[in-house]
Amino acid sequence: MHQKLENLMGRFGSFIHDNPFKVLLILAVLLAFPIAHIPQIKMDTSTEGFMHPDDPVLLTYNKFREQFGRDERIVLAIKDDHIFSIDFLTKLRSLHKEIESDVPYLDDVTSLYNVRNTRGEGDKLITDDLLEPFPSTQADVDKVKERAMASHFYKDLLLSQDGKMTTMVIETDAYSHQGEQEVSVEDEFSDGFGDEATQNSVVNKTFLTDEENHELLDKIHEIADKYRAEGLEIYIAGSPAVNNALKAQMRADMQKFMRITFLIILVFLFVVFRRLSAVFYPLLVILFSLLATVGTMAWTGVAFKLPTQIVPSLLLAVSVGATVHILSIFFDQFNQHGNKKEAL
After folding, report:
1. Sign of dihedral through CA atoms 49, 51, 52, 58?
2. Using CA atoms, how far apart are residues 285 and 332, in angstroms rounded to an integer?
3. Do 121 and 226 fall within a single domain?
4. Same domain, 226 and 273
5. pTM for this structure?
6. Helices (H), the chain
7. How many domains are contained in the chain?
8. Is residue 196 one of the residues assigned to a domain?
C-alpha cells in the first residue's frame, strides 16, 4: 500500500512538471469561486454564536425574544459635576432628541428628559415627565433635583447616588429591518388585530443583524463624539456595544497576528533554505490556502466567531509545516542529481 501511494505521488509530481500551465489553470478555476466570496465573510461576537442553531437553550431564548423583544440595552453614562443645571439639562434634551431622530432601529430611549415622575400630592396621584414642563430657571431645576434625588426609582438606574452621573438607556428593535417595505398607516391599520395578526407579523422575521447593530452603534458613537466636543463626558456600555467593540478588536488582532506570522514565516523559510524561491512559493501556497478557506466559510454562511478566530493562525501553522516538509524532500533530491522532475 505504501509503495502504491509512493508511485501515485511520483506520477502526480511528473504530471505537474510536464503540465505546469494546465495545473495552474485548474488551480485558478478551483480557487476563483471561494475567493470571490471573501467580501461576504461575517463576524459573530454574540453570546449566541457559541451555541449551535438547534441548541435547546438558544431555541428557548429565541422564543423569549419573539414574545418580549430584545433583552439587551445600550447605556450612555454621562458624567458631570453639575447635572442639575440649565446648561446640562439643555444638552441632555438635545442629545436625547438627536438619538431618537437619527439613530436607526430604535425601540425606546429613556433618560432624565422623558422619565416618568409619579408622585402623590395630597389626595392626588400625579404622573408626568420629570422635566415637564422643561425648567427655565435654576429655581425650577432645584425643584427637579429635589424630586429626583428623593425618588428611589431613579437611584442607581438613571442617576448615581452622588448625583454626578446620569444614564440614557437605549432599547433597540428585536427584529431586523432588512427587506421591509414602507407601509402606509391605512394599510397597517387594515392588517388586522389580535394575537393572530401579531403572530403572523413575526413569522419569517430575523432578529436584528450584526450589520444593523454595527450601524446603529456607529451612529451613537458619532453623536456621542459630537457632544463630547461640547464638554460632555460620555461613556457607552451595554452588551451590543461590547460585542461591537469586541468584533472590531478581533478583526484588528487577526490582521496584526497575520502580519507578524507572515513575517516570521518569511524569515524562517529564508534561514532554512537560503533561496528566494523557497520563500516565495510556500507563501503563495499559504496565502491561497487561507483565502480559499475563508472564502469557503463565507460561501457556506459560516461566520468567524470567538472560538474560530484561531483558524487563520492554525492554517498558517499547518500550511508552513506541510510546505517545509515537501520542500526539504524536494531540495534534498534536487541537490543530489539536479533533476527537477526526478526530485518531484
Report:
1. negative
2. 20
3. yes
4. no
5. 0.67
6. 2-18, 20-36, 56-68, 86-102, 138-150, 185-190, 194-202, 210-228, 239-273, 277-300, 311-337, 340-343
7. 2
8. no
